[in-house]
UniProtKB/TrEMBL annotation, chains A, B:
Domain of life: Bacteria
Family recorded in the similarity comment: Belongs to the beta sliding clamp family.
Keyword Manganese: no
The DNA polymerase III beta sliding clamp central domain, residue ranges: 152-258
Stated name of the protein: Beta sliding clamp
Summary of the function given for this chain in its UniProt record: Confers DNA tethering and processivity to DNA polymerases and other proteins. Acts as a clamp, forming a ring around DNA (a reaction catalyzed by the clamp-loading complex) which diffuses in an ATP-independent manner freely and bidirectionally along dsDNA. Initially characterized for its ability to contact the catalytic subunit of DNA polymerase III (Pol III), a complex, multichain enzyme responsible for most of the replicative synthesis in bacteria; Pol III exhibits 3'-5' exonuclease proofreading activity.
Species lineage: Bacteria, Bacillati, Cyanobacteriota, Cyanophyceae, Nostocales
DNA polymerase III beta sliding clamp C-terminal domain location: 261-382
Family annotation (CDD domains): beta_clamp (cd00140)
């Protein structure tokens, strides 16, 4: 294997795929990045894989001699990212007659010097899952990013919660639904498919680990300007996202996802419309006091004054109270929340104004954006200690 | 006490002084910021003090009624920094008839709401050290920043190393010398006083804790454009830096500082002049490999080729070698360093080109900037394992 490529291509692609390289690999080869060079197409592909999350990208290079090799990910990323712009030669021809000892050696030759790194054979590197059937759903990058942004934050960070550590994707005729819950709150986003499913295609549900989707979100953020749709291949056990020269695959999470739709009430006794940013920044101040106690913030809804008041009593430290105008329909009520769940939901809601839909002070409250994306955020109120 | 001030003034000054508030106070009052309001001058001063480091700043406000009170630093910083721009009223008149219970309460009233915080009496707050004698040394902010930047990095982070955790300041006729060493390397910077000492004034030496000087560096960074000189009041036991509306005081460190001058050789057998940034960026790449082993980098000085080569062998991982042109006087030599000490010194040296002054491969090596600030950096070579 011998190739010449640009430092910027090698470095940026390495940094993408190395996100899938485990920091504590269960097998030594998983600490590597698989490099495959094709002399016919002059394409180099890089793969990182932790047996669950896999990332593969490819870029153009002068491939003098094709081949494949597994290279130590961390060392290669750290050295390559520090090299100046310019051409780099990668070469494993001198593998056996190197003075450094037996085994595979790859030589990295930038303009300024030479690095020799111990490598492993490509045959030890596990295969990425294949796309077996060819029917894909297509989403724009923007729609996919919106779906992820509106759901990922509500997943559980507790690994013992299994399916709750993932986002549940439901493919429907012409929409894709993203849902996430950690047992305390629920976020649901519906985005539009680029092309509707054909009649004979099956509706499908999978739960994808949040970790893989966070990486997907990062990769798409660099790519958001692209018009090319993202292809989603969903299968029991595997999901693959593919676009341009990049693809990300992930195992799905096993187990029944909660029937979340039935948690969302359809009728409400009260409705409050409020400016989202003002609500959020006020909560951030009240949270300073709530932090000192049990994280509980009280919302007082005053229909006559058309005013929403946030307050917190942290007896040993002090108390705080702020009010803002709101459009209120329904009777006055006092209702309390964990301030963290309110803030996280408000951050994710994508509109300038939001609506709270309330029944009683201990029944689920629904937050929706006013216009734009179809998103539903459900938060459970908590008991107010008096 | 009652005053009205701008949110931006209160917030920025609180964030400055709160740097001196200990996170784990030995006495409850030290978790507070002392606020003093003067109705005659319409000045508000804030003080944070951990019994070693003290920071005091002042700003203009409408003081309706003068007074002093100790306010909970963290809560006040966190709330104030999140408030929108605008006027804030601070008030402790309602202290005793508050419904929240007995004890001091301060009321913070921004436009949007009201916060009540439990406060403490100002009489419990310890006094900052006074400036007893009036003779000061004056430095420009730029000179002081240069002195700190060129020395602070070389202090020891190990609290058991006592005086080595500080920077040693020596006041001379018309210069101020900054010195720092952790036992492995030494940095010395000489800056010019704004006004020379008068003949009858005494030369003085003190060692100031790095922690206090790092805070000073932060404060000055916001203030570097100012032409007004900084006054230094040095005393056995205390040092005070004062400028405009701000002052920082610190206890000095007790104990004899090492006689570092005698460590610096005066004669050298070899001299190497090299471009600093190239040297540093090459070291950063070689350090990736050195990190894998014992952090040792080898410098090979080739007089005939006028070339400096950096290399590292990390046998299990690989090896690296890079060369750069250098102006070399003296015979060829191989010499090894801890890569961290080389990089930190090169980062702090303030010139485009630097000179290495070398004798033998185990005697101290001196690094100096070519032109500009008077700085000396000494690093001890290490044994090359063969």
């Amino acid at each position: 294997m011998k190739l010449v490529c640009a430092q910027s291509d090698l470095s940026s692609n390495l940094s993408l795929v190395s996100r899938a390289v485990p920091s504590r690999p269960t097998h030594p080869v998983l600490a590597n990045v698989l490099l495959q060079a094709d002399a016919e197409t002059n394409q180099v592909s890089l793969t990182g894989f932790d047996l669950s999350l896999g990332i593969r990208t490819s870029f153009n290079a002068d491939v003098w001699q094709g081949g494949a090799i597994a290279l130590p990910a961390k060392l290669l990323v750290d050295i390559t990212s520090r090299l100046p712009e310019g051409e780099i030669t990668l070469d494993d021809e001198s593998a056996t007659d190197s003075t450094t000892g037996e085994g595979l050696i790859v030589t990295l030759t930038p303009k300024t010097g030479q690095y020799q790194l111990r490598a492993m054979g490509s045959e030890d590197f596990p295969e990425l899952p294949l796309i077996e059937d060819n029917t894909a759903i297509y989403l724009t990058a923007t729609a996919l990013i919106e779906g992820l942004r509106g759901s990922l934050f509500a997943t559980s960070g507790d690994e013992t919660k299994q399916v709750l550590t993932g986002v549940h994707l439901t493919v429907k005729q012409d929409t894709l639904e993203f849902a996430a819950t950690d047992g305390h709150r629920l976020a649901v986003v519906e985005t539009t498919n680029e092309r509707p499913l054909e009649d004979n295609e099956q509706q499908l549900e999978v739960t994808v680990p949040a970790r893989a989707l966070r990486e997907l979100e990062r990769m798409l953020a660099h790519n958001a300007a692209s018009e090319e749709p993202i292809a989603l291949y969903l299968d029991q056990g595997q999901v693959i996202f593919a676009w341009q020269n990049q693809r990300l695959s992930s195992r799905t999470l096993e187990g029944q996802y909660p029937a979340y739709r039935q948690l969302i009430p359809r009728q409400f006794e009260r409705q409050v419309t409020v400016e989202r940013r003002q609500f959020l920044s006020t909560l951030e101040r009240i949270a300073v006091l709530a932090d000192q106690k049990n994280n509980i913030v009280k919302l007082t809804i005053d229909s006559a004054a058309q005013e929403l008041t946030l307050s917190c009593e942290a007896q040993e430290m002090g108390s705080g109270r702020e009010s803002m105008t709101a459009e209120i329909a329904g009777e006055d009520i006092e209702i309390a929340f964990n301030v963290k769940y309110l803030m996280e939901g408000l951050k994710a809601l994508p509109s300038a104004e939001i609506q709270m839909h309330i029944n009683q002070n201990l029944s689920p409250v629904i937050f929706t954006p006013l216009g734009g994306l179809k998103m539903t955020y459900l938060a459970m109120p908590v008991q107010l200690r008096s």
